[in-house]
Design brief:
heterodimer; A: about 100 residues; Helix Hairpins; elongated; B: about 500 residues; about 80% helix; about 0% strand
Chain lengths: ~100, ~500
């Protein structure tokens, strides 16, 4: 009944939900960075799952996922670089401390 | 490979760091590095503009007026390609016009920053990302260029990295926009699952014969939310009033002038081309979002003390006008939306650039402390006044025409919600006149000099003044002869025939 594709789709939607929850609730910047990484993986997994829906495996999805992993790496680099500067200015990695800008 | 326009920008984006490094090693003075990299950026964007004009002439000669550039030599439905039609060309032209003057302005503006090479490289990459995103013919190419634009924007917002404000604003911007972009990617993957292709024309063609399913609805919601973060739809706009003031003024002009408009462009493209409004019925939801966006933006702008923050909230409101024009779906309303993209880019870009000069001279962003500075520096006060008048829709200037078109479009839709919407928009325009005239104009230009302004004695920088005046001239000329821009807008408005031509241009060839 359940094929591999369906299992992967369920897994990817769980990953998506987990990462959005983590983005909202987690307070450490490193945890936020990991949540973003999980979000990228959820989308990538969806592409892979959809790529073998037909008779043949679609190579386009694989090419896309490889590019998407690289982009994910760039986003991670950006957030980690900012984490260093956040630590320099605030002496903490707690995102709750980043509330000096209001309205 | 990616058409002459994007190739040129890429080549310059690669060569600017090399040139900057060589200048740093060969010459001991920082000025040379700044001037060389700045001039290279200017030349790169200028060349790209020239190629864009060549593309414009080329498009007029084509039967369907759509140029397709294949990136992979395989059969069209799976291929990633660039497809250039007048809608993309119009937004790209706006982006290049604004960025040309921003580059000219930046040559003098980045004097106090320590790393001009990084600044100009990131600026060029951001322009490349915008142009690529508006030319993209398949959803993944769109996403890649979109991320290129966003990543450069994160770093440019954090450019003043020794201040806590820039770091905090950039962090907020990064987390919100990265989550938004990846949500959009998830939505794109769902579309891929349903249609089996990513080529926009292929997706449109497949979706035409598909009924509304929950998966497609989820894809629509995810794409609107994802691109709406960058396009500052109201519940998702909270990064904008932090990020725009924290960035250097020239970058605020780029972000407010064209980056969020690219979000608007992608939503226009997705909602009119891909998600057919007769099947998905998104009109009322977009109307609701547009009204919330413009009202929140204008009301929040009324109570700001920081002049750049005020302009940033005003950008939220102006995006609301663009979405309102989109939601009407009449020819006039959509034309007004597109024309407003141009007017907002020029007007808000000019306002940020002019205010940036004044802030650099006085060293503060507080409106009360800047009191009277526009009168002291008349060469900057006059263009600032033109920008303000255009943004609040004074008749002879360009902003008037687009706001008029949007309101006429809403009345043409002839249903009660849109007429109420038109009244709310009129109310919003009046509100915006309130804060532009009685806060920005009165305090910055009319009021007597504040003690801070009394002390300022520096002269106005030449290049920055030139770029500000050039933008002011564009606003006045387009205001008097709106036909120059409207001729292109007319060809860009998405109608059902144009969508059919769009599919035929890409899929019909095979």
């Amino acid at each position: 009944m359940f094929e591999a594709t369906h299992l992967m789709l369920i897994a990817s939607s769980i990953l998506y939900a987990v990462s959005i929850c983590a983005l909202i609730t987690r307070r450490n910047i490193i945890q936020v960075a990991i949540a973003l990484e999980i979000l990228i993986d959820a989308a990538n997994m969806n592409f892979i799952a959809f790529s073998n829906m037909g008779l043949l495996i679609d190579p386009v999805a694989h090419a896309i996922v490889i590019t998407s992993i690289v982009i994910g790496g760039c986003v991670e680099t950006a957030i980690l670089a900012l984490a260093v500067y956040v630590y320099k200015h605030y002496r903490t990695l707690d995102v709750r401390e980043l509330h000096r800008l209001r309205w | 490979m990616f058409t002459n326009i994007i190739d040129t920008l890429f080549i310059y984006a690669i060569s600017i760091p090399v040139a900057g490094y060589l200048c740093k090693k060969l010459f001991k003075k920082d000025d040379i590095e700044r001037i060389v990299t700045g001039l290279l950026t200017l030349i790169g964007i200028g060349l790209a503009f020239f190629y864009l004009y060549a593309m414009y002439r080329h498009l007029q000669g084509l039967p369907l007026m759509i140029h397709v550039e294949h990136l992979l030599e395989v059969s069209p439905p799976v291929a990633s390609c660039l497809e250039i039609d007048f809608l993309g060309l119009f937004v790209a032209g706006t982006a290049l016009t604004l960025s040309l003057f921003v580059a000219l302005y930046s040559i003098q503006y980045v004097k106090e920053y320590e790393n001009p090479t990084a600044y100009f490289t990131l600026l060029t990459l951001m322009v490349t990302g915008i142009i690529g995103a508006v030319f993209a013919g398949d959803l993944f190419t769109l996403f890649v260029f979109w991320e290129l634009m966003s990543l450069s924007a994160y770093f440019l917002v954090a450019f003043k990295k020794h201040t806590w404000e820039a770091i905090e604003a950039s962090f907020k911007y990064l987390v919100m926009c990265a989550a938004g972009n990846l949500t959009a990617l998830y939505g794109i993957s769902l579309l891929y699952g349903v249609t089996g292709t990513l080529n926009i024309a292929g997706v449109i063609y497949t979706l035409k014969n598909t009924a509304l399913t929950p998966v497609l609805l989820l894809a629509l919601i995810m794409i609107v939310i994802g691109f709406g973060v960058e396009g500052s739809i109201v519940p998702l706009h909270t990064w904008l009033p932090d990020a725009h003031p924290a960035a250097p003024s020239s970058i605020s002009a780029m972000l407010s002038g064209i980056v969020i408009e690219t979000g608007g462009y992608v939503l226009i493209r997705m909602l009119t081309y891909v998600f057919d409004p007769t099947i998905y019925h998104w009109q009322m939801i977009m109307l609701f979002l547009a009204i919330i966006t413009m009202t929140t933006g204008n009301i929040m702008a009324l109570r700001q003390e920081d002049v750049k923050r005020l302009l940033a909230y005003s950008s939220v409101a102006q995006m609301g006008y663009i979405y309102f024009g989109l939601s009407t779906l009449t020819g006039t309303g959509l034309a007004g939306s597109l024309f407003h993209i141009f007017n907002h880019a020029m007007g808000k870009g000019l306002a940020f650039l002019a205010v940036g000069i004044l802030i650099a001279l006085a060293g503060t962003r507080n409106i009360d402390e800047l009191s009277g500075i526009g009168r002291k520096y008349k060469f900057i006060g006059v263009p600032l006044t033109i920008a303000i008048l255009s943004l609040c829709g004074t008749p002879p200037l360009s902003g008037f025409w687009s706001e008029l078109f949007i309101i006429i479009g809403a009345v043409e839709a002839k249903t009660t919600p849109f007429i109420i919407g038109a009244l709310i928009m009129l109310f919003n325009v009046v509100l915006s006149i309130g804060y532009y005239m009685f806060v920005v104009f009165k305090k910055l230009i009319w009021n007597p000099y504040s003690p801070t302004v009394e002390k300022v004695t520096e002269r106005t920088p030449v290049l920055m003044t030139i770029s500000v005046w050039a933008l002011a001239l564009i606003i006045v000329i387009v205001g008097i002869y709106p036909k120059i821009v409207l001729d292109i807008v007319k060809l860009a408005v998405p109608t059902s025939e144009r969508i059919a031509e769009y599919i035929a241009a890409i899929l019909g060839s095979s």
